[in-house]
Automatic annotation (TrEMBL):
Residues 64-200 form the DUF5616 domain. Residues 5-59 form the DUF434 domain. It comes from Methanosuratincola subterraneus. This is DUF434 domain-containing protein.
Length: 214
């Protein structure tokens, strides 16, 4: 990782801890260190003030705690993380302990790509021995209904107890469905009580694609 990005992250943590608005603070340090667009996105998505990072970390449960639990899966969030790993896109271990990709603005995965990722996610859930898994997809996204049906089909084929649905309010559905929320979305994490970084777990433990720590 470039020294400039590390130095910018140090400065950004200081500004965020002092209450500066994230967008303004990122722009200030990114301009100072003349960072490229990718590095700017990394700062925006991955750097947190210490108090926020600690709150998120306290919610993060280990894989062994999922045995016998009902999990709600933030469908597109998890699949896009896996897609990023499969296609060599940057993945970062963020200050709050969650793995996130920075693929904003790059080509989006097609339906077939997402089905391919499902073929990795569902066996992973099977290995985690959850009692029930509920996938939630954002209904306005193209072919979300088809993807939801495919999810139930693949779960049935693997013997994974679960269901899948689409929703106009996916965040609220995800938070209401399970004992543990599988996501790396900071907005959802902030409202959840227990979280599991399913995407990060899969890409690190199964695909062997360790993320970069800023």
């Amino acid at each position: 990782m470039p020294d400039a990005l590390r130095d910018a992250a140090v400065d950004l943590r200081i500004l965020l801890s002092k209450g500066y608005k994230r967008s303004s603070a990122v722009r200030f340090v990114a301009d100072r260190y003349r960072l490229c667009r990718t590095d700017r996105l990394a700062l925006f998505r991955c750097v947190y003030p210490e108090d926020v990072a600690e709150v998120h970390l306290r919610k993060l449960v280990p894989a062994e705690d999922l045995r016998g639990a009902t999990i709600s899966v933030d469908g597109f969030n998890i699949l896009r993380t896996v897609y990023a790993a499969l296609h060599g896109r940057p993945l970062y271990l963020c200050d709050d302990g969650f793995v996130r990709d920075i693929s904003t603005g790059l080509s989006k995965p097609k339906f077939g790509d997402l089905v391919e990722c499902l073929g990795l996610v569902i066996p992973c859930i099977c290995d985690l021995r959850t009692s029930f898994a509920i996938f939630v997809y954002d209904r306005p996204v193209s072919r979300s209904g088809d993807l939801s049906k495919k999810t139930e089909e693949l779960m049935g084929a693997k013997g994974v107890p679960g269901a899948s649905k689409t929703s106009m309010r996916p965040d609220s559905e995800i938070l209401a469905c399970g004992d543990v929320v599988a996501t790396s979305d900071s907005v959802v994490i902030a409202r959840a009580s227990k979280c599991f970084d399913l995407g990060g777990y899969l890409v690190s433990k199964i695909l062997g694609s360790p993320p970069t720590k800023i």
